[in-house]
Design brief:
single chain; binds S-adenosyl-L-homocysteine; alpha/beta; Alpha/beta knot; 2 domains; Helicase, Ruva Protein, domain 3
């Protein structure tokens, strides 16, 4: 299970936090570290010094320009944030996150990611809205934000405890597997893109006055944890809607001209 868990750091600005994260991960048996658009040197002496022995995780860390690339293959993405959002996202406690991981990681194609924000500004709403859930470490409300590597440590610990507890028990109740693999982040993003274009096409959605329509629809679909067969059905429905609305538009054009 721990081998299917990736740690993603967005826009990190202190190399010491990259090293500290590598150390926290290695202590807890995690190895897959990914950095999105880091704002500091990644492979330099400062990050290696803080990694103290976990240098290999820093050397092996992959760097991507966008969150989409970092989690494109992921089937379960959780964002860590100290802040409650205006549009609340499905929330998990660190313990509940650990408890969910064994079943989330059970399918063969499963890949999970825990995403962390910038030291100064955390994660944007748009970034959090690309996650299935929001994990919050219950801290002192008057001083809620942990150091980045410390936050990684707390969550990695919970995941390790859950993994140790899951060793002797089946990954899913009754050991029954779901019938279809989960949809990946890439599949979901293509679906949201198609959904938005279709809603514009049928005049349901006005991109000049978007309000929070797409964020709310994202939240709905993220909550339901779509599998790949359901994804195909939804894309098929959108395709049929596109076909009908285009046929109607042609018909109206034809009638109008004739
Ligand atoms: N000032 C930032 C916090 C940055 S701390 C803000 O207002 O959002 C850097 C990162 O550590 C956060 O983006 C988050 O991923 C993680 N983190 C820190 N404290 C946390 C907490 N209490 N719960 C969950 N994640 C936390």
């Amino acid at each position: 299970m721990l081998d299917k868990l990736r740690i993603v750091l967005i826009g990190t600005s202190h190399p010491g936090n990259i090293g500290g994260t590598a150390r926290a991960m290695h202590n807890m048996g995690l190895a897959d570290l990914v950095l999105v658009a880091p704002r500091c040197e990644v492979y330099g002496s400062e990050s290696h010094a803080r990694a103290s022995g976990a240098d290999v995780l820093v050397s092996n860390a992959k760097v991507y320009a966008t969150l989409e690339e970092a989690v494109g293959d992921c089937t379960f993405v959780v964002g860590a944030s100290a802040r409650v959002r205006h549009l609340p996202w499905p929330m998990l406690t660190p313990r509940a996150l650990g408890e969910r991981l064994p079943s989330e990681c059970a399918p063969e194609a499963a890949q999970a990611a825990l995403v962390f924000g910038r030291e100064d500004s955390g994660m944007t709403n748009g970034e959090l809205q690309r996650c299935h859930a929001h994990v919050h470490i219950p801290t002192n409300p008057d001083f809620s934000s942990l150091n980045l590597a410390a936050a990684v440590q707390v969550l990695a610990y919970e995941c390790r405890i859950a993994a140790l507890g899951a060793e002797d028990s089946p990954d899913t109740p009754f050991g029954v597997e779901w019938d279809n693999p989960p949809a990946s982040h890439d599949d979901l993003e293509r679906f949201f893109d198609h959904l938005e274009r279709t809603l514009i096409e049928i005049d349901f959605h006005d991109p000049d006055n978007p309000r929070q329509l797409m964020a709310r629809l994202r939240r709905l679909f993220m909550r339901s944890h779509i599998d790949s067969m359901e994804m195909n059905i939804l894309r098929g429905i959108l395709g049929a809607v596109n076909k009908q609305s285009r046929a109607l538009a042609r018909q109206e054009n034809h009638d109008g001209n004739g």
